[in-house]
Model the fold of this input.
Amino acid sequence: MLAQVSPWYAHAAQRLTTAPAHALTPPARMEWTTHPGLGPGAELLGRDLRGKRLLELGCGPGHNVAHLAHHHKAPTTGVDLIGLQVRRARSHYGHITGTTFSAGHALHHLQATTQTFDAIYSVFGAIGLVPPALLLAEISRHLAPGGVLAFSLPHPARAGRHPSPDDHPREDYVTMPDRTRHPIARWEYDAHRWAAHLSRTGLRITSALDLRHPRLDPWPTTLLITARKR
Ligand SMILES: C[S@@+](CC[C@H](N)C(=O)[O-])C[C@H]1O[C@@H](n2cnc3c(N)ncnc32)[C@H](O)[C@@H]1O
Done:
C-alpha cells in the first residue's frame, strides 16, 4: 500500500529541492497576499508592535515572522505543521533576534501552551484549514484583552467560485512548486460567516478586505479579515 504523504509535507520537500534553505535578510514588508506590495502590511496587527508578543499559525518559511521580529522588534513565534518547513524557517531566519519557530498543529500548539499573545495571525496558513469553531475558540483563549486576530485566505469567490452555503469544509487543492495539485479540505466562508463564528468565541470582526491585483486578477483572490478580542 502506498503511504499517504501530507500535501504540506510534499510542498515543503519540493521547495527545499528547488531552493535549498540558507540565511536570508528579513523582508522589508509584511505580506498578506501572494502579490508583494498589495494591500496593508504589519500595521493591521497594531500601530506600535515593539515588544508585543505575536504568533503566526502556519508560518511556512517564516518571512513574516522575521519581518515582525526584526523591523518591529516584536517577539514572534511561528508554528507550522511540517517539521521540514520549520527547519527551512530556522535556516532562513533562526539568526534573527526575537524569532521562535516551532513544529506542530496550530490547534495542538495552542492547547498545549499557557502563553497569551497581543496578536495572532495566519497568512494562507492554518485558519481555513482547521475546523474554525475549534481553532477560533483556542485563539480567543490565548489573546490578551483587546488583542488582534488577522488572517488572509484564498478568496471564497476566487475564479468565479461561490462561498460555502454552510459550515462544512470543501475540497480544494494545494498547487505544488512543480504545478501538480494535491487535494485538501478547506473552510471557504464569506466574511459574514466568519463574523458569526468569530462572535461565538468572543471576537468582534473589525474589517474584511477583498484583495485582488488591479491588473492581473479579474476576481478577488484574497480575503483578509481582522478581529479584536472583546
Ligand atoms: C500556503 S502555506 C503559507 C505559509 C506562510 N504563511 C506564507 O505566507 O509563506 C500554508 C502553511 O500552513 C501550514 N499548515 C497547514 N495546516 C496547518 C496546521 N493545522 N497547523 C499549522 N500549520 C499548518 C503548512 O505546512 C504550510 O507551511
About this structure: The two ends are 50 Å apart (CA to CA). Residues 202 and 230 are 6 Å apart (CA to CA). The beta strands are 54-57, 76-80, 99-103, 117-123, 143-154, 170-175, 181-186, 203-211, 222-229.
